[in-house]
Amino acid sequence: MTAKATIRAEGERLFAALVAAGAVPVETDLLQPAETLLDLYGEDIRARAYVTQDPVRGEMMLRPDFTVPVVQAHMAHGAEPARYAYMGEVFRKQDRGSGRASEYLQVGYEVFDRQAPEAADAEVFALFRNLLADLNLRPVTGDIGILMAAVRGLETTDRRKAALLRHIWRPQRFKALLDRFSGRAAMPAARARLLEKLELGTPARLIDEAGTFVGLRSPAEITERAEALVADAATPPIKATEAALLYDLLSLEAPAAAALTHLRGITPMLPAIEPAVDRFAARLNALAKRGVDVDQLAFEASHGRTALEYYDGFVFSFHAEGHPPVASGGRYDALTAVLGAGAFIPAVGGVIRPELVARLRGLA
Fold first, then answer.
1. Less Cβ crowding at N or C end of the chain, within 10 Å?
2. What is the CATH number of the domain that holds 123?
3. Helix, strand or coil for residue 123?
C-alpha cells in the first residue's frame, strides 16, 4: 500500500469513528469563493491560500479549511442541534524551507448546540483525546475569549480596543500595539514625522502639497485617517495596572485548574473577564466529568493565536514532539453570526491530520 493510500485509510478510520459518535457526514466544494474568506480575514489570507480567477465565478480559493463552508451550509439549512463530520484535502501555502505540507488530508468534527456550549467543548476535546489515546500526545488548551474580554474591558478608546482585537491573532503586532498604547514603547518614527507635518498644516493642505495620487484612497479617506492619527496621539496611555494585568494574562501558562485559580484572583481587578472566566470554570467541570484530569491539563492563555482568525473561545491542540499539531480546534461562536446573516448558534469543532497519525503509528 502506498503512503498516500495508507494515510487515506487512516483518515477513513478516523472519519468512521466521528460518524459513529453521532455526526452527519458532509462534503464541501474544493473551490471556495474568495470573497467570503477575504471579508473574514482581510488580505492576509492571500499569503496562506491558493487563489485563482474563474471567468464565471470570479476569484476563488482552493479550500484552506472546512469550517467556513460547513458553517455556511449549517446556517442556511441545518437542524439544531447538529454534529457534522468530514474528510478531504485542504491547501495552505508554506514558507520556503519550512518542510510543511501545502496539501494534506483533514478529518473534522463540528458541533452546533446552543443548550450547553461548555459541554460541547468538552465533548469535542474528549472525543479527540480518546481517538488518539495510543499516541501519547501532549494536549494544550487555551481560551481566546478571556483575552478578548480583557481587551474589551480596557479604559481606552474604542479605536484602540478595535485595533488590539483586530490583531489578537498576530502576537507580535498585538504586543507592539499594547506596548505603544500603554506607553512602554515610543511611537514609530514614521508616524511621529507625519504627526509633526500635521501640526504644521491641515490634511487637505498636505494632500495638495503631495502632488499626484498614486494610491487607492480618496482625499476624504486620507483626511479621516490623518484625523484619527492625531486623535490617537492625544489619547492617554492605558492605565499601568490594566496593562500589567493584560501582560500577565498573555504570559499565563499553568495547569488548567491552577490557571482558573489565578484568573479568579485577578478578576476583581479586571472585572470584564468575569463571564469568560465563569465559562472557563464550567468547561473544566465538563471536562472533568469526561475523565480529563484538569489538574494536569496544560492551559496557555495565548494558545491558538496564530490559527485562522475565527476562534473566539476555547481552543485546543494535541502535540507530538517534532511535528505540527496532530489535532486542533476550538470555539467560533461569532463566525456563525457573520455567516448566518444575523442568525447565531454556539459552535465548536476540531480537525485531525491523518498523515501525522499514520506517521506516529509507523504506518507512513
1. N
2. 3.30.930.10
3. helix
